[in-house]
TrEMBL record:
Family, per entry: Belongs to the PPR family. P subfamily.
Native source species: Microthlaspi erraticum
Gene3D superfamilies given in the database record: Tetratricopeptide repeat domain
Pfam families for the chain: PPR, PPR_2, PPR_3
PROSITE patterns: PPR
InterPro entries for this protein: PPR_rpt, TPR-like_helical_dom_sf
Name of the protein in question: Pentacotripeptide-repeat region of PRORP domain-containing protein
Length: 394
């Protein structure tokens, strides 16, 4: 490096020069100011544990315009209060919003309607929707869809179709595909699969196109409720209309195939989804295990369980509901014993009755020592409250 370059560098970066001294002082001051601003209003609300003080701090924080723009903290706060069953305080913090000009903007009001729905407070959601004209807030398909969603989230499935028909006509709102999809969810939730499927024709007659979400709701309702042939009809229509199938589509069909014990077809379907570049998830492998276990093909079921682990999926408790009883039924008690040990070592979730069944079968199979080990592991674990017993103790 030349002497001139070294001189220039020293002049530019020297901490002792007046200019740079002012620069670094300004940086330090800015850092200090940033430090002083913390904790933020959001942090103060999120870090609070007492529902009463959560409510008080939230209401105070709402005085800030930028705080009211934060959707996440609203959703988190309502979720926490709902979990604590403090619905009167949910009403308190959401009614507080009436003080602010935001309630004349449809986007903000739609958020409040959705929040009431997530808390299961549909009557409050409907009240907010009904009062929108009083705030000079126009009701369009945006707030209309929020009200329908609030109905679904509040488990008021029997009301969805009626609200859809009444308000869309009364308010001259033109429903979009999201509106129809929500109605389909409501009909399925109410056990009206035939009516839900029939809506596809109505959707198309309105010039709209049923999308991936539309078909996935219908596929899940059909296949999971044992209506395999209906599921196949919907699947065929989805293919015919060239609607893209995703992992939810395949998982629904895999579950349906497992329930009617079509394990060989499941393998073909699995290869198809992989060939389409879709990555299998824990629900995919759970269905595969369930299908083979249900047919008593334990070795294949164990193979799919290992494939799930290789793919980095953490097992859900439903998989053990299929796999452990199948192992016991076919006399593969050693595998059942090892799997139970793995469950507790990896802190996986499992139903107590399923593990008790394994213990009982181990005792019957003259594997008293193994049964005692499982009982000890189950009763001493610190994440599941189990009280297993050996058969001889009953």
């Amino acid at each position: 490096m030349s002497s001139l370059s070294r001189i220039l560098l020293r002049g530019t970066f020297s901490f002792s020069s007046p200019t740079n001294g002012r620069f670094f002082s300004a940086v330090s001051a800015a850092a200090a100011a940033t430090s002083e601003r913390k904790p933020s209003l959001i942090t103060l609300v999120n870090d609070e544990r007492d529902p009463k003080y959560i409510t008080e701090k939230f209401k105070k924080a709402c005085e800030s315009e930028w705080f009211r723009k934060n959707k996440a903290v609203y959703e988190r706060t309502v979720r926490r209060l709902a979990a604590a069953k403090k619905f009167e305080w949910i009403e308190e913090i959401l009614e507080e919003q009436n003080k602010y000009h935001n309630m004349s903007k449809e986007g903000f009001v739609a958020r409040i309607i959705n929040l009431y729905g997530r808390a299961g407070m549909f009557e409050h959601a409907q009240k907010v929707f009904d009062e929108m004209p009083e705030r000079n807030c126009k009701r369009t398909v945006l707030s209309f869809n929020s009200l329908l969603n609030a109905c679904i989230n509040s488990k008021k499935f029997d009301l969805v179709e009626g609200i859809f028909k009444e308000l869309s006509g009364k308010l001259s709102i033109e429903p979009d595909i999201a509106s129809y999809n929500t109605v389909i969810k409501g009909l399925c939730g109410n056990g009206s699969l035939t009516e839900a499927v029939a809506l596809i024709d109505e959707i198309e007659s309105k010039g709209l196109k049923p999308d991936n979400f539309t078909y996935n709701v219908l596929l899940h309702e059909s296949y999971s409720k044992g209506h395999f042939e209906k599921g196949e009809e919907i699947w065929g229509r989805m293919v015919e209309k060239n609607v893209p199938r995703d992992i939810r589509s395949y998982n629904a069909k895999l579950l349906g195939s497992a329930l009617v014990m079509k394990s060989e077809e499941m393998v073909t379907l699995f290869d198809e989804l992989k060939g389409n570049g879709i990555k299998p998830d824990v629900f995919t492998f759970t269905a595969m295990v369930r299908g083979f276990a249900g047919e008593g093909k334990v070795d294949e079921a164990k193979m799919w369980y290992k494939e799930m682990e290789k793919n980095g999926c953490r097992p859900m408790k439903y998989i053990f509901t299929s796999l452990l009883p199948a192992m016991c039924k076919t006399g593969d008690l050693e595998s059942a014993f090892e799997l139970c040990k793995e469950i507790f070592s990896k802190r996986l979730l499992v139903d107590e009755a399923i593990v008790q069944e394994v213990v009982d079968e181990l005792v019957k199979g003259s594997k008293q020592k193994e049964a005692e080990e499982i009982v000890e592991l189950a009763n001493k674990n610190d994440y599941l409250q189990f009280k297993l017993r050996l058969s001889s103790e009953e």
